[in-house]
Each structure stands twice: as structure tokens, then as C-alpha cells.
Amino acid sequence: MIPKSQIDLAKYRFQEAIEKLESARILLKENYLKDSLSRSYYAMFSAIRALLALEGLDSRKHSGIISLFNQHFIKTMIIDASFGRKLKKAQFSRERSDYGDYVEVTAEEVRNQLKDADNLISEIKRLLVKYTDDF
To answer: Which of 2, 79, 87, 91 to pair with 111, CA 20 to 30 A apart?
Structure first.
């Protein structure tokens, strides 16, 4: 039985993921490509943190979250390994677009990452529902 506090935290984080994904869509529509890329990464990141909350896991660092996700969900084949690769690519793209100078991002790159984020969030929702009926 998963404690209610962990379920509540997972719900909160998953809702954040949904909101960030919607923000990414709006930013793409308004042609703010780098910001859209960043928001779609954070949507993925928040969804993963929601999943980890049900396991009572967290980290202060992005690398720690990704490591926990890989250890508990990718290596155990609960989630397809392609999602781990897409997450790592999204993290790289976000860092490049947020911190790099003279970085150009294409609409196609943003659309592809949005699609990856949407697919990962859908997969995580499927698992959250499997873990608990509260989703």
C-alpha cells in the first residue's frame, strides 16, 4: 500500500507535468522555440518525479532523478529504454538552448521533443494508474 502523502505528491507533480507540456505547446505556437524546448523537457522531468514519488524516491539534481528513473524503471524494463534515451536527448537540448550562445532551434526539433514528452507522459500516466486508482 502506497502512503497517501506519496500519492498526493505524485498527483501534484504529474499535474505540473501536464501544465508544462501545455506551456510548451503554447510557446511553440507563438514561435518561442527555445523556451518551448525547455518546457517540454521539464514536463518530462516532472512526470518522472511523479513516478518516483510513488516509490518514495527523489534527488536534488537532475542527474540524480534521471539516474533513479533509469535504475528503477528503464533497467527493470518497466518502461521501454527508448524513453531513457529521449529524456537524455531532451536534457541535452534544454541545456544547450537555455545556456548556449547563438543557439538556433528548429520548429521540427521542438515538435519532435513535444511528441516525445507527450508519449513519455502518457506512458507514465499508464503506470500511475496501474500503481493506484487515484489517477
So the answer is: 79
Q: Is residue 1 within 8 Å of 27, Cβ to Cβ?
A: no
- Alpha-carbon Rg of the chain, whole angstroms? 15
* Under 8 Å between Cβ of 121 and 18: yes
Give the CA distances from residue 61 to residues 45, 49, 65, 66, 77, in Å, rounded to whole numbers and listed in that order.
11, 11, 6, 9, 23
Lookup: cell for 120: 513519455
Which residue segments constitute the domains of the chain, with CATH numbers given?
Answer: 4-130 (1.20.120.330)
* 46's grid cell: 516532472
Cα–Cα distance for residue pair 80/62, rounded to 1 Å: 20
Q: What confidence tens digit (pLDDT) does each residue in 108-128 have?
A: 999 999 999 999 999 999 999
**Model pTM score:** 0.95
Question: Residue 113: CA atoms inside 13 Å, Cβ hemisphere, count?
Answer: 32
